[in-house]
Amino acid sequence: MAQPEYKSWYKTARWQKHRAHHLALNPLCVMCAKENRVTPARVADHTVPHRGDETLFWDGENLQPLCFTHHNSDAQRAERGGRYRRQVGVDGWAVELSPEMAESERLKKTSR
Description:
By secondary structure, this protein is mainly α. It has one domain (5-110). It has helices at residues 13-25, 30-34, 54-58, 68-79, 99-110; strands spanning 43-46, 63-66. Strands 1-2 form a two-stranded antiparallel ribbon. The longest helix has 13 residues, at 13-25. The chain is globular, with a radius of gyration of 15 Å. The two termini are 23 Å apart.
């Protein structure tokens, strides 16, 4: 199966500059921060999966800084149609989703 055209956008100089700028302004993983950990972000992740929507792809407000671990597990699972794992706090209760994650979940439910 051929790769979608938008996959090539990640290889452009424009994306590399956009990504570097975002990570320079937001150097720490937002998901690690919610777990009270400090981890350098290495990935500028699209909060709402763009699925080829060029406007959403380039929207800096649609990016979140993530470490490799969080990007390669939670974010990728959600983008492929799965769900984010609910984080559980030390009290045993589920940790509330961020507004971005909640919106992503809502959009997936309404698009089915």
